[in-house]
Each structure stands twice: as structure tokens, then as C-alpha cells.
């Protein structure tokens, strides 16, 4: 997951750029972030069904098209290429590990090359290192890795396309405080970068010669002081604007909330136990977990009464949202339903080794998901990086 | 010692204990599950990921139910921003991990509840800023939350011993965090035919050997980098940062007790 983190916050310092997709007759606006997430997760579900490399590359192409057509110039919208790097890493790691930690070769495999065999001690007998490597083994590792990589890229596409600050609004009321803290964090982070630059400049002006860890301390402490000062000012501002006023929660509803949460957590624990233990009665597994989850959700809903919130300019959910989410779900349904094609074509076998076929219905389903690229309205041009 | 920034009621304590149990299950299921209970290697990580999201929601909601005052909340937001800004500095280069540094020290000064919440909000904010939202997030958030919380429960110490204790804790938690996160994606990240991949139904010892080999081959170097970074950072910058945090805590006076004086009592202080 580390390659994902590499998009730095400094990216937000750059100014507005023209959007890649201006023109067309439709009014540009941002699609509801949840619509993108539904679309991407549905596509990821569809991907999880298939091992066919042709279909998987088609999914990557579709993702690439939609992302280039509908992303904004916001800092989070530049991360897709890192997801592609990450996807490549996943495939490479899988192939390399399959080759190095091999499990032998059968007479039906095509021998490719052989790695030196390193014996492991008896008490560590489970692990085999080195040995002959077959073409089939590498291909199966690569296609399976490609599936995981595609699912990763689906999530990357959602991250790229959906506005995270807008997505924060769907947090339930019971997590209001968390949402506030994260909103504060997101808006303060660019200021921190400026703060660091200011401190570094001041150090240079004072001819600070310290290097390495000494320099770290010289930068960290002033920046932290600055940040903490800022937080106290912010708290005063929040107080004066009415943070912390009581919602509609009564003493009784608070008690019920607590009881629901505790019961729900007990249900989840029982469910987890039932899922893992073979001797546990059947009702302790998924049913108990589902019941616990329901109780927890009810508790969260009731706990949301603690705060009253109003939405400023709420995101609309109109026809394009329905369309984008719809084509995603439809493609997942088509791939899960096994209608109109041979399910074996989704997962081509390596014995005998042949070129995989491209089944018609799944191809159409994936291309259908790609129509999101023009079903969604064009993004608003020149959106400021720090706009809400 | 100043008061903890966020109060933990006994109800939160119970919920956190249950959450810890669920967390252990969600991370260690490959070793705990009875053979033949799960069909696919992809399903359990997703089920447990959703489960962890729900658990985190419940715990955070319960913590907030006890009341987070505006000063604690603003501090939470600003320190999360610090963490989110620090995180990309290290990630990707030799496993240098800079998140734990602030997390451990803040958890120590502002208490366990604050540490827990800070662990969640830092990673959440960082993921939102860098576009890293995904199914791995609940696992990371859960890990960080517990690192921050346990830092708040460390025993009393002062001076050099405190800094040394925090540094050791930081490096140990760095290792443990890497170990657990690897465990969270081990079952599905390798080809099932590889000899270090998760194979359902193996006895515990063999499964454990496979996992250790996987951990050794993939991320021990990274985890070592993280542990060393934590240790060195806390040892060198820790005293200054602790002082800064404590000064801010004194200034903020979290959860200052409020007394309402009747209007007619003449000897009460006018506010």
C-alpha cells in the first residue's frame, strides 16, 4: 500500500488548470461521490469473477478512459498513475514469489527454467525455495495477480474521481466529531506545508547550519507550536459559532443507544467466534454477526441524535448519478449471473495452454460500465484545489 | 499530569475491549479458522474489513458520546493534519514511517482516548488527501488507533526514562504494526501454489512457518526501517515535542470543570 501514499500534499499548492474535458453542451458539475464509489465497487465485484486476461485488460482500458475523461485537476485526482504502479508491483511480486518459492512441476507443465534449490532445515520443511519453474505456473500467477491489480485500480479510479471532502458528508451523525476533525485536518494540511516552508526560510536567514536530526528538531518544534496555537484559536472560533450545542438526544435515548451498541458488539463477537469455529452451532456464525451489525447500525443511527446537522448546498442525486451507478451495478450483475455465455470462458484453463477466448456478454458488460465516461457530466473546469 | 483530553467512560472501556477481541480475530483469522469454513481467500478479508469499519464507528461514536470538547477536537484535527503531512515524507523510501512519532507522543500526553481517535483521524485524513481510500484502510486505522491508545496506557515515568520507554514502545509497535498489516493481506496477495502462500486447512505450525517466511521475504526490511525511524525520532526530538504538547495541554485546560455560581452569593468570584 505504500506506493499509494506517494502523492504528496504539496500538489495542492499549484494553481488552477483548465479541465481536460471542457466543451460539450452539458453543464459541468461534480457527480455525487457515492455514485463513483458504487460504480467502481460494482466493477471491482465484476472483476473478482474473472481470470481472463483479455477481459482484465479491457477493464483497465475502461478505467483509464473514464478516469481521463472525468477527473478534475484536484490533488487527489492525480493519484491514478500511482495505482497503476502499485498494480504492476502486485503482479511482479506475485510472479517472482511464485517462481522463487516454487512447489515443483508436473509432467504436463512446460518447463521454462530452473532456479538453484536451497534446502531448508527439517523443522522448517513447509517452505521450498528454488527448483524448476513452469510456464503455466508463471502465467497463472500473472493472471491472478492481474485480477487483484484490476480490483486495486477500480478503487484507485474511485479515489481519483470522487471528491473526498464531499464524500465526508455521508458519515452518519454519530460520527460527527470524527468528520469535523478530518475536515479540519484536510483544510489545515496545506497551511502546514506553508508553515514548514516559513520555518525553513527563517532558518536559512539565520544561517542555521545544523544538518540531519538537529535540523529536524529545529523545524519540528516551531511547526508544532504553530499548529497547536492554531488549534486553540480554532477551538475558540468553534465555541463562538455554537459547536457542541445539544441535539435531540434525551437521557433515555442515550441509554438505549449504549445498550444497542453493547449488544451489537457482543453479537459481532459471537458471530466472529461462530465463523471461525467448526463446532459452533450454525446460528452463531453469519446470523449472529448480521444481527450484531444491525444492532450496531441502529445504535449509530440513534446516536446521531446527539447532534443536529444541516447541509449547506447538498449534493444532488439526479439522473447521471443513477446512470453511472446503474451501469456499474448492471455490469456486475451480468458477470455474476452467468447468462448467455460459458462460465468456463471467464476462467480459462492453462491445460492445454491456449489463447483465451473473448466471451461476448462479459465484454459487452465491461464496455457498458465504460459508458460512465460520458454518462457523467463533465467536471467543472478549473476547480480550485482547496475549494470545498 | 494534566487531565486526559478525552474522557473514557467505563462503557467505552467495555466497547474497546470487545473491539480489541474483534481486531485480534480480524487480523489472526488465518491461524484461527477451522478448516473448510471459508470458501475463497478473498471473502474473509472483505468480511472482516467491513466488520472493522463498523467496530471503529461504534468505538468512535461511543468515545464522542462521552463528549469531545472543542479544544480536544481542534487539537485532534490539527495533529491529524500534521500526521497526514508527515506521512508522505517517509512512505516509499526504505520504510521510513513518520506517523507513529506524533501518534505515540500525543497518545502519551493527551491520554488513551485521544490516542485512539488520533490514530483513526490521521490515517483517514491522510487517505483522503492522497487518494488512498480502500479496503486496507480499516486495518491500518485499527492498527494505528491501538498504537495510539496503548501509548496512553504506558506506565508513569519521567525524564530520560520516559523518553527511552516511548522510543522502545515506538519501535516495538512499528514492528508489530508491520507484522499485523502483512497478515491482513497475506491470504490473498500471493499465488496459492507458492510455498509461502496461505493455504486453508494447514495445521498451525506449518501455516505459521509459511507466514514467517512471507513476512521475512516481503517486509522485514521495511519494518526495521520503521522501527529504527521511530526509535531515533522519539529519542532525539521526543523531549522537545513532549514539552510542546504539555505546554499546549496546560494552555488548553481540557475538560476544565465548570462551576455555576448563584447570582446572589456575594463571596463568589465574578466571572
Automatic annotation (TrEMBL), chain A:
Start and end residues of each stretch annotated as Disordered: 1-24
Biased composition, class Polar residues, residue ranges: 1-13
Membrane-related topology note: Multi-pass membrane protein
Major place of residence: membrane
Cellular localization per UniProt: Membrane
Keywords: Membrane, Transmembrane, Transmembrane helix
An example Gene Ontology CC term for this record: plasma membrane
Keyword Transmembrane: yes
Residues annotated as transmembrane: 30-48, 54-70, 82-105, 174-193, 255-276, 282-302, 322-341, 353-376
Record InterPro entries: ABC/ECF_trnsptr_transmembrane
Protein name as it appears in the record: Cobalt ABC transporter permease
Organism: Streptomyces shenzhenensis
UniProtKB/TrEMBL annotation, chain B:
Keyword Transmembrane helix found: yes
The UniProt record lists the keyword Transmembrane helix: yes
Sorted UniProt keywords: Membrane, Transmembrane, Transmembrane helix
Signal peptide: none
Transmembrane domains' residue ranges: 12-34, 46-64, 84-105, 112-130, 136-154, 166-186, 227-245
The protein, known as: ECF transporter S component
Amino acid at each position: 500500500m505504500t506506493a499509494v501514499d506517494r502523492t504528496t500534499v504539496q500538489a495542492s499548492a499549484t494553481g488552477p488548470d483548465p479541465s481536460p474535458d471542457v466543451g460539450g453542451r452539458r453543464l459541468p458539475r461534480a457527480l455525487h461521490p457515492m455514485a463513483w464509489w458504487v460504480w467502481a465497487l460494482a466493477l471491482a465485484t465484476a472483476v473478482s469473477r474473472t481470470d481472463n486476461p483479455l477481459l482484465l485488460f479491457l477493464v483497465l482500458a475502461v478505467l483509464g478512459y473514464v478516469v481521463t475523461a472525468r477527473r478534475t485537476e484536484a490533488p487527489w485526482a492525480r493519484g491514478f498513475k500511482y495505482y497503476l504502479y502499485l498494480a504492476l508491483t502486485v503482479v511482479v511480486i506475485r510472479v517472482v514469489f511464485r517462481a522463487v518459492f516454487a512447489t515443483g512441476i508436473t509432467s504436463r507443465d512446460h518447463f521454462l527454467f530452473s532456479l538453484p534449490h536451497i534446502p531448508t532445515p527439517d523443522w522448517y520443511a513447509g517452505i521450498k525455495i528454488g527448483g524448476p519453474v513452469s510456464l503455466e505456473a508463471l502465467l497463472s500467477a500473472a493472471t491472478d495477480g492481474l485480477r487483484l491489480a484490476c480490483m486495486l485500480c477500480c478503487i484507485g479510479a474511485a479515489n481519483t474521481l470522487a471528491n473526498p471532502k464531499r464524500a465526508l458528508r455521508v458519515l452518519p451523525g454519530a460520527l460527527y466529531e470524527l468528520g469535523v476533525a478530518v475536515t479540519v485536518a484536510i483544510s489545515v494540511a496545506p497551511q502546514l506545508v506553508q508553515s514548514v516552508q516559513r520555518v525553513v526560510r527563517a532558518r536559512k536567514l539565520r544561517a542555521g547550519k545544523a544538518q540531519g536530526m538537529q535540523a529536524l528538531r529545529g523545524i519540528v518544534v516551531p511547526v508544532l507550536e504553530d499548529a497547536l496555537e492554531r488549534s486553540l484559536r480554532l477551538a475558540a472560533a468553534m465555541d463562538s459559532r455554537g459547536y457542541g450545542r445539544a441535539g435531540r438526544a434525551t437521557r433515555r435515548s442515550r441509554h438505549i443507544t449504549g445498550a444497542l451498541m453493547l449488544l451489537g458488539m457482543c453479537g459481532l463477537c459471537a458471530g466472529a467466534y461462530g465463523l471461525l469455529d467448526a463446532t459452533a452451532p450454525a446460528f452463531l456464525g453469519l446470523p449472529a454477526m448480521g444481527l450484531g451489525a444491525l444492532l450496531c447500525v441502529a445504535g449509530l443511527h440513534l446516536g446521531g441524535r446527539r447532534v443536529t446537522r444541516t447541509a449547506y448546498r447538498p449534493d444532488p442525486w439526479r439522473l447521471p448519478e443513477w446512470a453511472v451507478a446503474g451501469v456499474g451495478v448492471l455490469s456486475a450483475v451480468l458477470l455474476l449471473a452467468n447468462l448467455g455465455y460459458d462460465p468456463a470462458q471467464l476462467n480459462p484453463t492453462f491445460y492445454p495452454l491456449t489463447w483465451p477466448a473473448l466471451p461476448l456478454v462479459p465484454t459487452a458488460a465491461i464496455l457498458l460500465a465504460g459508458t460512465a465516461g460520458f454518462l457523467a457530466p463533465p467536471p467543472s473546469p478549473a476547480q480550485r484545489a482547496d475549494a470545498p | 499530569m494534566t487531565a486526559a483530553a478525552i474522557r473514557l467512560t467505563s462503557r467505552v472501556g467495555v466497547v474497546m475491549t470487545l473491539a480489541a477481541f474483534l481486531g485480534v480475530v480480524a487480523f489472526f483469522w488465518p491461524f484461527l479458522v477451522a478448516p473448510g469454513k471459508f470458501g475463497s481467500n478473498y471473502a474473509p478479508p472483505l468480511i472482516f474489513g467491513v466488520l472493522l469499519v463498523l467496530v471503529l464507528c461504534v468505538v468512535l461514536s461511543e468515545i464522542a458520546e462521552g463528549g469531545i470538547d472543542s479544544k480536544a477536537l481542534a487539537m485532534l484535527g490539527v495533529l491529524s493534519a500534521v500526521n497526514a503531512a508527515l506521512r508522505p515524507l517517509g512512505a516509499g523510501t526504505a520504510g521510513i514511517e513518520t506517523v507513529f512519532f506524533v501518534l505515540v507522543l500525543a497518545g502519551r500526553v493527551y491520554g488513551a482516548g485521544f490516542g485512539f481517535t488520533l490514530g483513526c483521524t490521521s490515517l483517514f485524513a491522510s487517505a483522503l488527501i492522497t487518494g488512498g481510500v480502500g479496503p486496507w484502510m480499516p486495518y491500518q486505522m485499527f492498527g494505528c488507533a491501538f498504537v495510539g491508545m496503548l501509548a496512553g496506557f504506558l506506565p508513569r515515568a519521567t525524564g530520560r526514562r520516559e523518553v527511552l520507554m516511548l522510543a522502545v514502545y515506538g519501535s516495538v509497535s512499528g514492528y508489530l504494526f508491520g507484522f499485523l498489516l502483512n497478515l491482513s493481506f497475506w491470504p490473498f496477495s500471493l499465488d496459492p501454489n507458492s510455498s509461502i502462500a496461505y493455504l486453508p486447512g494447514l495445521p498451525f505450525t506449518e501455516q505459521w512457518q509459511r507466514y514467517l517466511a512471507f513476512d521475512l521475504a516481503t517486509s522485514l526490511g521495511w519494518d526495521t526501517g520503521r522501527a529504527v525511524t521511530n526509535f531515533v525520532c522519539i529519542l532525539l526530538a521526543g523531549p522537545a515535542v513532549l514539552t510542546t504538547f504539555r505546554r499546549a495541554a496546560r494552555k488548553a485546560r481540557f475538560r476544565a470543570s465548570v462551576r455555576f455560581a448563584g447570582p446572589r452569593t456575594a463571596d463568589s468570584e465574578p466571572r
